[in-house]
Amino acid sequence: MSALAPTLEAWFTDRLIGQRHASPNTVAAYRDSWRLLLQFAQSRTGKQPSKLDIVDLDAQVVGDFLNHLEHERHNSARTRNARLAAVHSFFRYASLRHPEHALLIARVLEIPTKHCERKEVRYLNEDEAEALVDAPDTSTWEGRRDQAILATAVQTGLRASELTGLRVGDVELRTGAHVHCKGKGRKERCTPLDKATVALLRAWTKERGGSAEDPLFPTRRGSALTRSALGCLVAKHAATAAQQCPSVRTKLPTPHVLRHTCAMSLLQSGCDSAVIALWLGHENVATTARIYLHGDMSIKERALERTRPLNVKPGRYRPADRLLAFLSGL
Predict the structure, then answer these.
(1) Residue among 47, 68, 227, 256 flagged as catalytic
(2) pTM of the model
(3) Tell me: the pLDDT tens digits for 122-157?
(4) 178 assigned to active site
(5) Catalytic residue (choose from 30, 93, 123, 292)
(6) Interatomic CA distance for residues 243 and 151, integer angstroms
């Protein structure tokens, strides 16, 4: 076995899981990145992954792998950067264990990330969000469950994994109603609930029953919904909502669009960016400001209304009437 294999295994077990206590999602993402890279290197060298050495993964090979992701697998620049982050993380760890490969490792670490296009966020306005929440057929068990899910998603802005991971015991519907979740980066937070969502969740939890550790939004078999199932659920009810509100179709709603909808609703109601960042569980307030302030056209329109037209000369207001002049002088 080469030096690469035990180092890679130690990186996953000792560094990511043991020392950093990385989340299962992070471990899975890094695992998939390295599986792709090892398969690519195998196709280049003809060596089995367990026989590959660190010298077989130099900057040229890693660069060709990134190009392969973009041009042959048609991955986005964001996906390319995520794969590169997994490679960089491992090579930083390897630099401490294998100083004999310091030059090769340094060249790999110098591979830059690629700039991504920043698109404006998609979100639903009040009428569109209401049409989506009202879309499920509440005469069925699935319809009542789906309405509770959609209302919770729009009002709390939870991520898809946070929403599907909710347990019955994570919901408090008495005084100070809120949902409790463990989000990205293992950060725990509580998000308040409004009266309409509390009413829906109170009816749903009464019908759903179960213990505190059971999934809040289960399948018919009692297991938690997957993120892909949640995406299909949102798309299904968006198609129904579009019959009453055609503009919903143009927004292509997804669970993350519902998260954006919550954030934009908070912003338009006058909430500060720091409050929205806490609400959504963002690590950096600047991220919240950049995404949502840029996406809110109404803020830009209000700024435009306060600016002076170019063809108007600056000057002080001078009342034409003596009484108005007297009042202005007080």
Answers:
(1) 256
(2) 0.70
(3) 889 899 999 999 999 999 999 999 999 999 999 998
(4) no
(5) 292
(6) 19
